[in-house]
Design a protein that fits this description.
By secondary structure, the protein is α+β, with helices and mostly antiparallel strands. Helix content is about 30%, strand content about 30%.
Length: about 500
């Protein structure tokens, strides 16, 4: 049986037994992960059962002894591993940053505390960019607070009102808690997450890593090496995912309240030093392997807790970012940027037609245009070598271009002007038959110049594009694609060495 098959079998078994296991005395969580033997992690996949104190079976009532294996009808049994773990609540780099970056200290106006601003997301309810962190960092766990403003840094780190207000709580996922008493069984909560408005200048980059975040997301996986940037321990890269699909009990408000958080995973320190500490709550967890987008790392989780295992090794707990995005109706930042371009194109058209301010934007245009553009990219990939290269450029450079468009109004305006004749076309056939006029090329070249200054790693690609831009003036996009593919095909043939027949 492959490891992937073992993981799926353990996940299925865990789901079947989770509720039952969480009723056992001392059990505070369940997950799927690797078995530990004598303090060393093995390659065996099991159902992990976390306890606040590991006791010998003879000192427990028979009903509280976790079985060595779990049976599932029609399948072989799956072993269990009882693991002692101490979970600490995470109440709160105390620096004040303007523009505001991801990974810095924030907190609510209502308390002297501090957590971490993880990063950014695109709120699909209104297509605005929002800050992302935990419910318990900027909200009030069970209820929405009357005082909703967010300060950076958090008041624990010296933030003052009103000078340090950067936004306000917009929406949260309710975290169900009960008094933390023996035998307490809180209702499960899907994630510990909240979003807020950002009303001051901000940067898409994560502190220290200096890469744009939340442009690409990925599913957390066992043995994935991860990193994060938080308010307290700053940039740490010594984390490895050792448990997935966890449901875990965690205390809040100095241990007085108990919550049960689902859709979690556990990160174990690889060197014994802290991966996270108090005040890092709200940090984004990033894969250490660069994703499809150049210059960015995929986000896999949102940190909400931590503690130590039985051997004293630090552990960190985070929610699966996919569950966070689903619960809060978020998508990646690049979607917000693309929709802003579409809005600007059609807003400008309606304003020009009527001679006054744009009419309210029809959100159905997004749906139509996004589908049309996806189909156009499919056509590009199928059109030949040149189309494939354009698609690759779009796919890999989205993070760099998106971060420029978010913060450079002139660059944004130039791109809108260059794309307007194409984006407004009703079909992809019309797009291919649209001519590259002088105004569009001028705007595109000016946009490229600004992009070169702010994204130096793209200069070589931009220089190549600028060299041919003037030569294609007056041609249709379809003619350019056909000519480019023909040229590339001839070039490829001319470079082939003669061989024996």
């Amino acid at each position: 049986m492959t490891q992937a098959e073992q993981v799926m079998r353990a996940l299925s078994t865990q789901e079947q037994y989770a509720e039952q296991l969480l009723q056992f005395r001392h059990v505070i969580g369940v997950a799927t992960g690797y078995r530990s033997r004598r303090g060393r992690t093995t390659s065996e996949i099991c159902v992990q059962v976390f306890v606040d104190r590991k006791l010998p079976p003879e000192s427990l009532a028979a009903a509280d002894v976790v079985p060595r294996s779990l049976e599932v009808a029609g399948q072989s049994s799956v072993g269990t591993d009882v693991m002692e773990i101490t979970i600490e609540a995470q109440p709160p780099d105390p620096g004040r940053y303007r523009p505001v970056p991801a990974g810095c200290s924030i907190g609510p106006e209502s308390s002297v505390s501090a957590g971490t601003l993880g990063g950014w997301g695109c709120d699909q309810t209104d297509d605005t960019i929002v800050l992302l962190t935990n419910n318990h960092v900027i909200s009030n766990l069970d209820a929405l607070p009357a005082l909703r403003r967010i300060v950076q840094p958090g008041r624990l780190d010296g933030g003052v009102l009103p000078d340090d207000v950067i936004g306000s709580l917009k929406r949260h996922v309710v975290v169900n808690t009960v008094p933390n008493t023996p035998g307490a069984a809180p209702p499960p909560s899907v994630v510990d997450a909240a979003i807020g408005t950002i009303d001051v200048d901000y940067t898409p980059n994560l502190l220290q890593l200096n890469v744009p975040v939340t442009y690409e997301i990925r599913t957390p996986a066992l043995a994935m090496n991860v990193q994060k940037r938080g308010r307290t321990t700053r940039l740490t890269t010594n984390g490895r995912i050792t448990s997935i699909n966890a449901t875990i009990d965690i205390s809040y408000r100095s241990g007085t309240r108990l919550g049960r958080i689902q859709n979690a995973f556990i990160i174990t320190s690889t060197d014994g030093s802290l991966f996270s500490d108090r005040g890092d709550s709200g940090s984004l967890i990033l894969d250490q392997v660069e994703g499809e987008l150049e210059g960015a790392f995929p986000v896999v989780g949102l940190l909400f807790g931590g503690g130590t295992d039985a051997g004293g090794t630090p552990v960190t707990i985070a929610n699966d970012i996919n569950a966070v995005f689903g619960a809060l109706n978020l998508t990646t930042v690049c979607t917000c940027v693309a929709r802003a371009v579409i809005r600007a194109v059609f807003g400008a058209e309606s304003a020009e037609a009527r001679g006054d301010a744009p009419v309210p934007f029809d959100r159905q245009i997004y749906v139509h245009k996004e589908r049309q553009l996806r189909r156009f990219r499919d056509q590009l990939r199928e059109s030949g070598v040149f189309g494939e290269e354009i698609d690759k450029l779009i796919r890999t450079q989205t993070a760099r271009v998106g971060s420029v468009l978010t913060h450079d109004e002139q660059a944004f305006g130039l791109l809108v002007r260059a794309l307007r004749p194409f984006v407004k076309q009703p079909t992809n056939l019309d797009v291919l038959e649209t001519r590259l006029d002088r105004d569009s090329i001028d705007s595109l070249l000016k946009f490229a110049a600004r992009l070169s200054r702010t994204a130096p790693k793209m200069r070589a690609r931009i220089a190549g594009a600028k060299a041919i831009a003037r030569a294609v003036e007056g041609a249709t996009l379809g003619q350019v694609l056909r000519a480019a593919n023909l040229s590339l095909e001839r070039g490829a043939k001319s470079t082939r060495k003669p061989g024996r027949r």
